[in-house]
Amino acid sequence: RADADADLPLTHAQRHDVAMTVRRVLLATALVVTAAVVQVTLVNPWHLPGGGPDLVLLVVVSLAVVQGPLAGAVTGFFAGLLVDLLPPASGYVGLWALVLCVAGYLAGLLRSDTRRSAGALVAAVAGLSALAVLGYAGLAMLFGVPGGTWDELTSVLIGTVLYDLLLAPFVVPAVMGLARRAEPDLSRMPL
Question: Strand runs (DSSP E) across 53-103, as ranges?
Fold first, then answer.
């Protein structure tokens, strides 16, 4: 029976689902790669006091809020893997992948709350930004990655959250708008 089904052509709805999935993956890839390149080439060289913004996290959170927890986790994992591999890589591949995977999943769980309230979205950005900094620091400590002092961690935590909150009004709506355009319009789907 499975072999017989494989020979059947795709229905219109199935072709639409495949096209939407491809569109979502291409958009997420383009946005994550762009954010990572901008982060490494333009933001990181500034050596801002208290750390700096995490553009990749903002993109992952924005995509997850539109696309849900599974897409958020997958996007976060691959975005984190990219961050782990781009300079200045710590040599421990997988730390950012795990942190951004969890952040994407959690942002996706907040999907309905953040769609209704700008305050919920701001709180999600602040909370997930703090979680990312603390999560990475905790994993780095667990795996013996040389790091800074508690005072430096506090400074980076506060700085990163504040920078992310300053950039969120510009980055998050733009990314969410692009992601929503890649979502299917269910009102136009035939029943």
Answer: none
**In 3-state terms, what secondary structure has residue 169?**
helix
| Closest C-alpha among 186, 176, 185, 184 to residue 28 | 176
pTM for this one?
A: 0.86
Alpha-carbon Rg for the chain, nearest whole angstrom, is 18
Report the distance separating Cα 14 and Cα 184, nearest Å: 12
Which token pair is 178? 């692009």
Go through 16-48 and write b for each residue having 16 or more CB atoms within 10 A of its CB, e for each that does not. eeeeeeeebeebbeebbbebbeebbeebeeeee
| C-beta of residue 32 within 8 angstroms of C-beta of residue 137 | no
The answer to whether 100 and 136 have CB atoms below 8 angstroms apart is no
Which tokens hold the place of 80?
Answer: 């984190």
Could you read off the pLDDT of 114-164 as tens digits, one per residue? 666 788 888 899 999 999 999 999 998 888 887 778 888 899 999 999 999
